[in-house]
Specification:
This protein has four domains: 201 residues, 2-enoyl-CoA Hydratase, Chain A, domain 1, CATH 3.90.226; 173 residues, 3-Layer(aba) Sandwich (Rossmann fold), CATH 3.40.50; 106 residues, N-(1-d-carboxylethyl)-l-norvaline Dehydrogenase, domain 2; 83 residues, N-(1-d-carboxylethyl)-l-norvaline Dehydrogenase, domain 2 (Orthogonal Bundle). With 693 residues, it is an alpha/beta fold. The strands form five sheets. Strands 14-13-12-15-16-17-18-19 form an eight-stranded mixed sheet. Strands 1-2-4-7-9-11 form a six-stranded mixed sheet, with helices on both faces. Strands 5-8-10 form a three-stranded parallel sheet. It is globular and about 80 Å long. Helix 11 runs antiparallel to helix 12 and helix 14 crosses helix 15. The chain is built from 28 helices and 21 strands. It starts with 9 loop residues before the first strand and ends in a 28-residue tail after the last helix. A hairpin with a 2-residue loop joins strand 20 and strand 21.
Length: 693
């Protein structure tokens, strides 16, 4: 059937009964990213299929990792640079539409990850079957890159499963499990891994019947009247979660769906034009950059065996207990040590709650709990591969602990501290093997925060650092290697922001005003709510440790709160009163006038300290700094991180604003060393370096 055609990325075969199998296997890659070359070959294949009219077509992947990770983002960036996004979006649409119009039945057989352009490919098939296991993940995550589906996703998915079900899938970008995809009607059948292709061929011969209720919903929610009624509701719901000026893509996608008529040609045209417009926005460019930054962080632990199977954690408080629980959740054997069982039991209870939420199955919950063992006498330290110290922030106490446990270590056991601020050069001074000691600084809550700072010092063995990076990768975290100076990276940059916000609070600026200003800038949570969430005791402790180094002072009023036992969320009262885990924010008087430099006073100290960190070599380069601050503090992702924000606003402009603040409010705003760094002057849409697939 395909005589005279040669393919690099597709394999073709035809059975005796006339069924053609197309196997996507992108050359020189461990994953299927759908590039222009992949699409060009598919176009040739579909043209031939349209002429030959086989009995049916099955499309699947040869990659163990999954069906397809989506479009090739690097190519997309090149299209954006050369203003050819629209042309290439329309090309992909034409290929998928030609597939959809084939006169024969088509089935997509899905395993593993099926994302973005991969999901749009399976939507262009008549039916879909997926492997019934935990690895199957189907998603349209384009909003996370500041765009929306462009190869027919917005045109086809609402018509397939109904707009009320499809829009949340596209607006959140969250992946569907196999069972969820079946329940929604995204796939028509599930199969065992070893039966996927045979079941796909069976589905070709005996198509699944879509339930009447599902077909009726798909029609009813996409009529002109339904779109006019539903669109404003969905827009309002979206606006309650994100700001249009920060994240335009969700709003653009709703508009595309609202305006799209019954004909697919019009819907595809609106979709393509919208994506092309979004691709030029700073939001899309910054979010795509962050995608590659994330890939780079993931890649730091690649290619090295962590040589860790047993983790021993000392300190069963909130951090230590949750680190232990997370490591056990990710498959490691963990022993958790504290002075008495009464200190360990709450950690075990929290672990069970986490496992029940994440694992669902009772058998899996129990298996995870079996991997997490209480160890009051600390015998586990002698057989562990990694010991993590997570006791309270006191250098003397930590050094005393190391003196008792280090003599029990194996020859190659790693000792790590979860300290958030104490310099490692200080903590390692009495160790017998300082070369195997480093920092593994997790963030609270451990189960939600993706970043781990891998903290260096002057005696650290580079191989131990690599093993630690690999361990972070194994537990699903994003590691960033940082210099062991006070506060490392994240706390050093976060504390000036928090302390200035608390100072403004002490000056009489209402907490809700401060929180609103920060969220308007793009922070995920306001600083007053954040301080209460972290705990005012933690803020004060880290603040006292860092304030002298940063040239700052603790704002007044903190000690009074702490003496009154008002530490924040955990006490039900701090700067706010907390009920049912939510802050009860007081009403702000209508006539209150917000200080004009409020946002600058909070945000620019972060930027100033970020530039100082870069100058001090706290991280290896500017890209890693932006990644660390975004994933560690939630710094407005659409702004690309503090360094990227400086570039976009202009370093000279921000430096001048700091100098004005210093004249108005004090020396703490004085620009720090590093503002003359050439990297701050870089412009344009430049991608960070990332590991190739």
């Amino acid at each position: 059937m395909f005589e005279g055609l040669r393919f690099n990325h597709w394999k073709t075969s035809e059975s005796e009964d006339g069924i053609v199998t197309l196997t996507l296997d992108r050359a020189n890659s461990s994953v299927n990213a759908i590039s222009r070359a992949v699409l060009d070959e598919l176009e040739q294949i579909v043209e031939r299929l349209a002429i030959e009219k086989p009995a049916g077509v099955v499309i699947h992947s040869a990659k163990a990792s999954g069906f397809a990770v989506g479009a090739d983002i690097k190519e997309f960036v090149e299209y954006a640079k050369h203003d050819t996004v629209l042309e290439n979006i329309e090309h992909g649409q034409r290929v998928y539409e030609a597939l959809a119009r084939l006169p024969c039945p088509t089935v997509a057989a899905v395993h593993g990850a099926c994302m973005g352009g991969g999901t749009e490919l399976i939507l262009a098939c008549r039916q879909r079957i997926a492997v019934d296991d935990e690895k199957t993940r189907i998603a349209l995550p384009e909003v996370m890159l500041g765009i929306h589906p462009g190869w027919g996703g917005t045109a086809r998915l609402p018509r397939l499963i109904g707009a009320t079900e499809a829009l949340p899938v596209m607006l959140t970008g969250k992946a569907l499990s196999a069972k969820r995809a079946l329940g929604l009607g995204v796939v028509d059948r599930l199969a065992r891994p070893d039966e996927l292709l045979s079941e796909a061929r069976l589905l070709l011969r005996r198509p699944a019947t879509r339930p009447f209720a599902r077909r009726a919903r798909a029609w009813a929610t996409n009529t002109w009247l339904a779109r006019q009624i539903l669109a404003p509701i969905v827009l309002k719901q979206t606006a309650a979660k994100v700001r249009k000026e920060h994240y335009p893509a969700p709003f653009a996608m709703i508009e595309v769906w609202k305006r799209g008529g019954s004909g697919i040609s019009q819907r595809l045209k609106l979709e393509a034009r919208s994506v092309a417009k979004l691709a030029t926005t700073p939001t899309a460019q910054n979010l795509i950059r962050i995608f590659f930054l994330q890939e780079r962080l993931k890649g730091q632990g690649a290619g090295v065996d962590a040589q860790i199977s047993h983790v021993h954690v000392v300190g069963a408080g909130v951090m230590g207990g949750d680190i232990a629980a997370w490591a056990a959740f990710k498959g490691f054997n963990v022993t958790l040590q504290d002075r008495e069982m009464k200190f360990i039991q709450p950690a075990l209870d929290r672990a069970r709650t986490l496992y029940e939420k994440k694992l669902k199955s009772a058998d899996k919950v129990e298996a995870a709990m079996q991997r997490l063992r209480a160890d009051v006498d600390g015998s586990g330290v002698a057989t562990a591969d990694l010991a993590i110290e997570a006791i309270y922030e006191n250098a003397g106490a930590k050094e005393a602990l190391y003196a008792t446990i280090e003599p029990q270590f194996q020859a190659d056991e790693i000792l790590a501290s979860n300290t958030s601020s104490i310099p490692l050069d200080e903590l390692r001074k009495n160790l017998a093997a300082p070369q195997r000691f480093l920092g593994l600084h997790f963030f609270n809550p451990v189960a939600q925060m993706p970043l781990v700072e891998v903290v260096r010092h002057d005696r650290l063995d580079p191989l131990i650092e690599k093993r630690a990076l690999a361990f972070c990768k194994a537990i699903g975290k994003l590691p960033v290697a940082v210099k062991g100076t006070p506060g490392f990276l994240v706390n050093r940059i976060l504390m000036p922001y928090l302390l200035e916000a608390l100072r403004l609070y002490s000056e009489g600026v209402p907490g809700p005003v401060l929180d609103r200003a920060a969220k308007k800038f793009g922070m995920p949570m306001g600083p007053i709510e954040l301080a209460d969430t972290v705990g005012l005791d933690v803020c004060a402790s880290v603040g006292r440790e860092l304030a002298p180094f940063l040239g700052l002072e603790l704002p007044p009023g903190l000690d009074d709160k702490l003496e009154a036992g008002k530490r924040g969320k955990k006490d039900g009262q701090g700067l706010y009163v907390w009920q049912d885990g939510r802050p009860q924010k007081p009403e702000v008087p209508q006539d209150y006038v917000t200080p004009p430099d409020l946002a600058d006073r909070m945000i620019l100290p972060m930027v100033n300290e970020a530039i100082a960190c870069l100058a001090d070599g706290v991280v290896d380069d500017a890209d890693l700094l932006d990644a660390g601050v975004i994933f560690g503090t939630g710094f407005a992702p659409f702004r690309g991180g503090p360094i990227q924000y400086t570039r976009s606003e202009g370093a000279d402009k921000l430096k001048a604003r700091l100098e004005e603040l210093a004249q108005r409010h004090g020396e703490r705003f004085k620009p720090k060393n590093g503002w003359d760094n050439p990297t701050l002057a870089q412009g344009g849409f430049e991608l960070p370096t990332s590991p190739s697939h």
